[in-house]
Amino acid sequence: MENGEWRVKIPVSEIFYSIQGEGKYAGNPSVFVRVGGCNLKCPGFGKNGCDSFYAVDKKYKNSWQEMSISEIIAEIKKYLRFNPDLVITGGEPGLYFERLYPLIKWFRGNITIETNATIAPEFDKYSEYKNVAFAMSVKLSNSGEEYNKRVKKEVIENIAKNAKKSFFKFVVDKDLKEEIEDITNGVDIPVYCMPLGATKEELEKNAPFVFEFCLKNGYRYSDRIHIRLFGKKRGV
C-alpha cells in the first residue's frame, strides 16, 4: 500500500517530455511537471503576465488536474528510458514544497525547481531539497511587481546556502545591472540572463542587447530555445 503522502493532491497544469530550453541545464532531455497557481502576477510581462499564464491565472483553474504523487510518478515513468532530468515548474512550485517532497525523494536523476524565490522549503525537515538545483528567477522591476513582494533576500540566501547547485535566472530587456547586483550581492551562485520575449520576434529583438549585457557584466547568457522554436505553444 502506498504511503499517505503519495495520495496528497497537487494542482497540475501539465506534464510533458521535452528539452530544457533555458538556464544551467539547457539542452537536457527533461520531464516537466508544471504546477498550477502562483503568488505573483507579473503584470509587466504583457497582457497575460507570465508566459505560462495558463498555470497562473485562476480563470484557467478548470484546466488544472488535481493529481497525487503516485499519479505524477506514473506519468514520469513513461519517459525514464530517456534518462531525463526532472523539472518542476509553474506557476510557483514553492506553494507545494511539503506536498512535492515525496516526488523529490523518489526521483533519482537531476532535479531543477524553477521558482520566483519568494518561498523556501524547510531544508532541515526536508533534506532532499538540498540536492535540488533551484533556478531562482527572481522578478525584476520589468515584472511590474512591487519590490517587497518579489524580492525576499532571506529566502534567496537560504536557498543558495542549502542547495549548492542553484543558480539565478533573470529575464532582461534593458540595463538592469543595479537591480541584479542588489539581488545577487553576497550570494555566490551563477547568474544567467535571458532575453525577455514570449514570441520568437520579441526574443530576437531583445537577444543582442542581453548578449552584450552579459559580456559587459560577466553574466552567463541563456537563450530560450522553446520560445525561439515554438513561441507560446504549450507542452514544449
Describe this structure in words.
The chain is of the alpha/beta class and 236 residues long. The protein has a single domain (4-230), classed as TIM Barrel (Alpha-Beta Barrel), CATH 3.20.20.70. Helix content is 28%, strand content 21%. It is built from 7 helices and 9 strands; from the N terminus they run E-E-E-H-E-H-E-E-H-H-E-H-E-H-E-H. The longest helix is centred in the last third of the chain and has 18 residues, at 200-217. It is globular. The mean pLDDT is 92.
Q: What's the architecture, going by CATH?
A: Alpha-Beta Barrel
What percentage of amino acids are in beta strands? 15-25%
Query: Roughly what percent helix?
Result: 25-40%
Q: Characterize the overall form.
A: globular
Mean pLDDT: 92
The neighbouring-strand order within the major sheet is: 3-1-2-4-5-6-7-8-9
How many helices? The count is: 7
Order of helices and strands: EEEHEHEEHHEHEHEH
Largest sheet: 9 strands, mixed
Structural class: alpha/beta
> What is the quaternary state of this protein?
single chain
